[in-house]
Design goal:
This protein is α+β, with helices and mostly antiparallel strands. It folds into three domains: about 150 residues, no CATH class; about 80 residues, Muramoyl-pentapeptide Carboxypeptidase, domain 1, CATH 1.10.101; about 220 residues, L,D-transpeptidase catalytic domain-like, CATH 2.40.440.10. Helix content is about 40%, strand content about 15%. It contains 17 helices and 15 strands. Strands 1-2-3-12-10-9-4-13 form an eight-stranded mixed beta barrel. The chain has a four-stranded antiparallel sheet with strand order 5-8-6-7. It has a two-stranded antiparallel sheet with strand order 14-15. The longest helix is centred in the N-terminal third of the chain and has 24 residues. The two termini are about 45 Å apart.
């Protein structure tokens, strides 16, 4: 009898050592029930409860609770049978909850598997083990969940949007697709279309049209305003005309938008948005730059502007973060060898006058040479000389360049091609990022640097002579990728122009255990 009691005690000691805090007396208690509630709520964070074995754990913990209750009711004692089973169940719950906290905090994939050059955030990793042990000791799992949840207002707003779009997933307005547009393939104000009732229902469900509005007979001004609101939220020209692109966006189901939000939340878990008191963030799919300060834990945008990013077909802008350390005023444009070989040299052979018009010059071992010749072009192709463009009104970099040293040689700059900022989709560059309002950005970067008021910045930009300024307080620059965000209570969606959402979605699905 004594040996049996010793063996039983050893089992209980082993269970406690393996999963401290769980199933302490061999039966589920408040902590276990709370843990199950968090795991089953993982979907509210864009996670999948199945990844944390929530359905099976729910069944098994309920069975363990029933067994314990049955043992108590039968008068055989408070402890449930098979303490080794209780220990194993506690260990599984412990592992599942640690995995949930880690995924919530850091994400489920290594960023480099979906973005080759993306580095992990600079912030130190959260100690999940210590966090959970402390929460268990205090009896407050909510503390651990709160600490693991990304402390970003953008994340909290996306979580609310996720909940809303989930409620739309079975909405009758998407039971059937919208019909084909009337000839000539677009719907303009006062036009007739048999899709108007269904369009009205969708816009009402999405909040772009008042809920009490009745479906009109024709495409009337109120419905046009609803479409314009929808277009603004989806990165489209808000002209109220329903053409092929707007119709395609209207056809996207709420379930697809749910997944888009989930993928953006996943990226936010490893995107360092608050790594310094000031930051510059470019959201590639949105074609927008925001320069902001972090004030009392809140992001306060100081300036915002349109940008032009790399072409989706062949010169995509890479995603990374580096510190902006230099500003070049009236910069030279050193033509990258790939552009020289693939574009500029062939053009100069066809049109030699382009050389003088654009202000190009050769730079080689012999110094600078402004005279165009076939031999010098061959030297460029051979890699023994290069071409650069002098400062001036036709310079491809405009009158200012913002430098954050990186291995991809990506930088921010102005451009003489300002008309491109009026396009809805702005992926036209060779990878570097063109900014719409360089003066405002320079003022933000140099706001605390003595001797650089607006007048001096303007003078340096217009000087026509290249000069470089070191930034006293480097500003982190983050090139990010988010196809959905929430602003002023409205949810905005943007096209997955580089296919990064598709790649992330595939990576997440590939790592899920097979049923």
């Amino acid at each position: 009898m004594k040996q049996w009691l010793c063996a039983l005690a050893a089992l209980w000691i082993g269970a406690a050592a393996a999963a401290p805090g769980w199933m302490a007396d061999g039966r589920p208690g408040p902590l276990e029930r709370e843990a199950l509630a968090w795991l089953n709520d993982a979907a509210s964070h864009g996670l999948d409860p199945r990844d944390y074995d929530a359905p099976a754990l729910t069944v098994e913990l309920a069975a363990a609770a029933a067994a314990a209750a049955g043992a108590t009711a039968s008068g055989t004692g408070a402890a449930p049978p098979r303490p080794e089973a209780a220990a194993a169940l506690g260990q599984r719950l412990d592992a599942a909850f640690r995995r949930y906290l880690a995924d919530l905090n850091r994400g489920r994939v290594e960023p480099r598997t979906v973005h080759l050059n993306f580095r992990a955030p600079r912030a130190p990793a959260l100690d999940i083990e210590a966090l959970l042990r402390g929460a268990l000791a205090a009896g407050r799992l909510a503390d651990a969940v709160q600490a693991a949840t990304p402390a970003l207002p953008a994340y909290a707003r996306l979580r609310e949007a996720l909940s809303h779009y989930r409620t739309l997933a079975g909405h009758a307005a998407w039971a059937q697709p919208l019909p084909a547009l009337p000839r000539p393939g677009k719907l303009t104000p006062d036009g007739l279309w048999d899709g108007i009732p269904r369009l009205t229902a969708r816009l009402q469900a999405l909040g772009d049209l008042p809920a009490q509005a009745a479906a009109p007979f024709m495409y009337d001004p109120a419905l046009v305003d609803g479409v314009r609101a929808f277009q603004r939220r989806h990165g489209l020209t808000d002209d109220g005309v329903i053409g092929r692109t707007t119709l395609a966006a209207l056809q996207v189901s709420p379930a697809a938008r749910v997944r888009q939000i989930e993928l953006t939340m996943e990226r936010l878990r490893w995107t360092p948005l608050m790594q310094g008191p000031r930051m510059i963030v470019i959201n590639v799919p949105e074609f927008v730059l925001r320069a902001y300060e972090v004030v009392d834990g809140r992001i306060v945008v100081r300036t915002q502007m349109k940008v032009v990013v790399g072409k989706s077909a062949d010169t995509r802008t890479p995603l990374f973060d580096e510190d902006l350390r230099f500003i070049e005023f009236s910069p030279y444009w050193n033509v990258p060898p790939s552009i020289a070989r693939g574009e500029l040299v062939p053009r100069l052979r066809r049109d030699p006058g382009h050389w003088a018009r654009e202000g190009f010059e050769f730079v080689g071992a012999g110094g600078v040479d402004t005279v165009l010749s076939a031999a010098k072009l061959e030297a460029v192709l051979a890699g023994v000389a290069r071409i650069r463009q002098r400062p001036g009104p036709r310079n491809a970099l405009g009158d200012i360049k913002f430098v954050f040293p990186n291995r991809d040689n990506i930088y921010l700059h102005h451009t003489p091609s300002v008309s491109l900022f009026e396009r809805d989709r702005r992926d036209f560059s060779h990878g570097c990022i063109r900014v719409e309002e360089p003066l405002a950005l320079a003022k933000f970067v140099l706001q605390d640097q003595p001797g650089w008021p607006e007048a001096r910045i303007r003078e340096a930009m217009a000087a026509g002579t290249s000069s470089t300024l070191r930034v006293d307080a480097p500003v982190p620059v983050l090139i990010a990728y988010g196809t959905t965000l929430v602003r002023n209570g409205l949810t905005f969606f943007y096209d997955d122009i580089y296919g990064h959402d598709r790649r992330l979605d595939a990576a997440l699905r590939a790592q899920r255990p097979k049923p």
